[in-house]
Amino acid sequence: AQSVAQPEDQVNVAEGNPLTVKCTYSVSGNPYLFWYVQYPNRGLQFLLKYITGDNLVKGSYGFEAEFNKSQTSFHLKKPSALVSDSALYFCAVRDSAVAGFQKLVFGTGTRLLVSP
Amino acid sequence: EPEVTQTPSHQVTQMGQEVILRCVPISNHLYFYWYRQILGQKVEFLVSFYNNEISEKSEIFDDQFSVERPDGSNFTLKIRSTKLEDSAMYFCASSPTGGRGTEAFFGQGTRLTVV
């Protein structure tokens, strides 16, 4: 069965510094990978996705993510963090080899705290 | 920008009572979903709905749950006899297609508290 791991409950970074939020996945077939962000009292907002092609994917708000097949990772990155980036970040996956194709499997989430 | 809206934002209900959570998906979307997040735990898939029928459901989605699209705009989740362990944040989502590479757009959630 497909799964996602987010090994860090919280990531702390100073404003202006680069940030990385880690995600590793496990699938039987090919992965379809997504990052979502959740601000307080808001729903999950889509940031970016990897389906196929270029391993570096660019998304909303200056975020990008790098797909690494050999390390089964899809880490979220941003060159320069903003205080307003502070939120809960979720990695999610769909597995091409699993029957039934709509279920998104989420990680446990990583809280990003950007200090001024 | 179009968005998924959910009502109410917070509902408190007594154990054993029926509850209906409501959602208005994005208007041109064809696939609809319910997910839930128990406090401090993962976001979990419950069910997907397409063409007026369930297309996929998880093991969580047992006989106490049902979904309906009663009027072409609303999408509802009914929990027939609530239990304490149903307390969670429930998210509705929609997507324009059902392909694996298609992202889902989520509402802000309904926090259900069963007492």
3D architecture notes:
The complex is a heterodimer of chains A (116) and B (115). In chain A, 0% of the residues lie in helices and 52% in strands. Chain A has strands at 3-5, 10-14, 19-21, 24-26, 31-38, 44-50, 56-58, 64-68, 73-78, 87-95, 105-106, 110-115. The N and C termini of chain A lie far apart (41 Å). In chain A, strands 2, 5, 6, 10, 11 and 12 form a six-stranded mixed beta sheet that branches. Chain A has a four-stranded antiparallel beta sheet with strand order 3-9-8-7, with no helix packed on it. The mean pLDDT of chain A is 92. Chain B has 115 residues and is an all-beta fold. Chain B has one domain: Immunoglobulins (Immunoglobulin-like). Chain B is 0% helix and 50% strand. Chain B is built from no helices and eleven strands. Chain B has strands at residues 5-7, 10-13, 19-24, 31-37, 43-50, 53-57, 65-68, 75-79, 88-95, 105-106, 110-114. In chain B, the strands form two sheets. In chain B, strands 2, 4, 5, 6, 9, 10 and 11 form a seven-stranded mixed beta sheet that branches. Chain B has a four-stranded antiparallel beta sheet with strand order 1-3-8-7, with no helix packed on it. Chain B is globular. Chains A and B meet through strand 5, strand 6, strand 10 and strand 11 of A and strand 4, strand 5 and strand 10 of B.
